[in-house]
Each structure stands twice: as structure tokens, then as C-alpha cells.
Amino acid sequence: MEERNVIGVYHLTKKYGDQYALKDVNLQVGNGEFVFLVGPSGAGKSTLLRLIYMDEFPTDGQVVAGSFVSTTVDRKKIPYLRRKIGVIFQDFKLLEDRDVFENVAIAMRVTGEKSYEIKKLVIHILTQVGLYHKRNDLPRKLSGGEQQRVAIARAIVNRPAILLADEPTGNLDPDVTEEILRLLFRINSGGTAVLMATHNLSLVENFGQRIVHLKDGIIHEDRLTGLGGNPSDKLSEYRWNRKRLDKQETTGELR
Ligand SMILES: Nc1ncnc2c1ncn2[C@@H]1O[C@H](COP(=O)(O)OP(=O)(O)OP(=O)(O)O)[C@@H](O)[C@H]1O
Ligand SMILES: [Mg+2]
User: Fold this and answer.
1) How far does the centroid of ligand 2 lie from the alpha carbon of residue 90, in Å?
2) What is the mean pLDDT of residues 204-221?
């Protein structure tokens, strides 16, 4: 893998029984890059992400994520890999019986950090995602967007080089979706590579980011949309267009 790549996927195949979930997939993600992984249901997006964070292993081929190589990794080292790769999901996967602070702190406890270090960092990250005031609440008292921000805080508290997001806005309404995208772009501008899976091409195609299209376990297209630039500017455009479309829908106005 070239030095500037943080993810390298080489001839990756994953079969479940006789069924191919991924077929000879090749993909590189550069250090600090933002990539949308788009494809319909069943395309293999979640499978690809699971193989990258080594929750599962390939039938054939190889994944390199940071300094971890799927074919040689010591399975006991997986907790250390979780420090380098943050992961967020559509359903947040928070611990329902722990408060917000603890949900984030837990990601540091597994790696044996000192408790004052944990406290300092968790407070810092919760402030960054705008949830310091909710630190003592249980997840069920939070809105969906707030819960996803807790999950994001947990995923980035160890300052990972890679953040994987599997349909992170799938359960959220458009305003909150925008807020989560904004947060992901901000994390990315701090140098973390982000790979975000979504089935919603129309949501992501206007940000000028790289889009990888997956279908039936095969990459069909890998392209940059637009001219790149700062995605947060595009987010404002997106908001403006969406408000306009919403208005057209309610007023029946066409153009
Ligand atoms: N644990 C499993 N056992 C058997 N088949 C599986 C398993 N996980 C995934 N598959 C199959 O692999 C294929 C790819 O599934 P995957 O969940 O990766 O798709 P996806 O692109 O994430 O879809 P969605 O948008 O619905 O989340 C599907 O055909 C699915 O049924
Ligand atoms: Mg999926």
C-alpha cells in the first residue's frame, strides 16, 4: 500500500455460502480523503465496511487498514485496530444503560487509558459535537441526531485515522442529516479519512466528493463529482435547494 493510503482493498472477495457479497473488489482511500460508497440494498456496502474494520475476514483477497493487514493480523490486536478505525452505524449502537459520557469513555477504556486522560478527552469531544450539556443523560432521552452525535464522539475519541460510517443518516430527517454530514465533513477536514456508505445517491452527489458505486458486490464506477472544494459550502447550497424543493412541493409551484 502506498504511504498516502489509509485503506487498501485488494482483490477482495466475500462469499456467504454460495452467494457472493463482494467480488474481486479493489479500492484505495487516501490519507484524509472523503469517499461516499453508494449502492442499492444488498450491494455489499456493509460487508465491505465490516471487512475493513476486520469484524469479518475475506474469503479471498486482502484488506489493509492503517497498519493492520487482514491476512496477517493477530486477532488479539483487534481492540487496538478499533482505536485507529472509528465506526458509526444507522442505528447508533449506543449502550442504553450507560449515560452519554460513559458511552464515549468506553471506547477509551478498552485500550487501558488513564481515567483523568479519559475524562479530559471525553469532555473535549462532547463539547466538539455540542453535547457536553447532555453528558449525564441516558441515550433514550436524546433525539436521533443527538444519539448519532454521541456515536460519532465515541468513534473519534481515540483520534482515528479512519472513520467508517454505515448509512449514518438512514434514520434521520433531512435537517438532522445535514447536521450529521456537516459534522463528518468537519472531522474530515481535521485529517481523518471518512468512508461513508449510503444507498442515497441524490443525497451525496452534489458535494464534489469522490463517489464509489457498488452493485452486486462489484465496483461499477469510482469518480469525483464536481470540482472538489469545500463540501461545507456545498452543504449550504444543498440546504437552499432542498428548501426550494420543499416549498415547490407544498405550493405546487413548478419552477
Ligand atoms: N452474515 C451474512 N450471511 C449471509 N449473507 C449475508 C450476510 N451479510 C450479508 N449477506 C449478503 O451479502 C449481500 C450484501 O449485503 P450487505 O449487507 O453488505 O449489503 P448493503 O449494500 O449493505 O445493503 P443495505 O443497503 O440493505 O444495507 C446481500 O446479498 C446479503 O444478503
Ligand atoms: Mg448495509
Assistant:
1) 9
2) 94
pLDDT at 167: 97
Q: Is the pLDDT of residue 255 over 60?
A: no
* Torsions phi, psi for 12 (to 5 deg): -85, 125
Q: Are 225 and 206 in contact, with CB atoms under 8 Å apart?
A: yes
State the CATH number of the domain containing residue 213. Answer: 3.40.50.300
- Look over the chain and give the mean of its residue pLDDT values, rounded to a whole number: 90
Supply the residue whose CA is at minimum distance from atom 26 of ligand 1: 41
Residues in the chain: 255
In the reported structure, the alpha carbon of residue 45 is separated from the centroid of ligand 2 by a whole-number distance in angstroms of 5
What digits encode the pLDDT tens for the residues 40-65?
A: 999 999 999 999 999 999 999 999 99
Most ligand 1 atoms within 8 A of CB, residue of 47, 53, 215 to mutate: 47
Query: How many independent structural domains does the chain possess?
Result: 1
Contacts of 134 (CB under 8 A, 6+ apart): 100, 126, 141, 142, 146
Q: Whose CA is nearest to atom 30 of ligand 1?
A: 42
What residue owns the CA closest to ligand 1's atom 8? 47
User: In whole angstroms, how far apart are CA 176 and each of 6, 17, 63, 173, 188?
Assistant: 29, 38, 33, 6, 18
Write out residues with Cβ below 6 Å of ligand 1.
16, 19, 21, 39, 41-47, 199
pLDDT cut 70: percent of the chain above it: 89
Which residue range is the domain that position 127 belongs to?
5-251
Q: How confident is the model at residue 83 (pLDDT cuts 50, 70, 90)?
A: confident
This prediction's pTM: 0.91
What spacing in Å lies between the alpha carbon of 94 and ligand 2's midpoint?
18
Residue nearest to atom 16 of ligand 1 (CA): 44
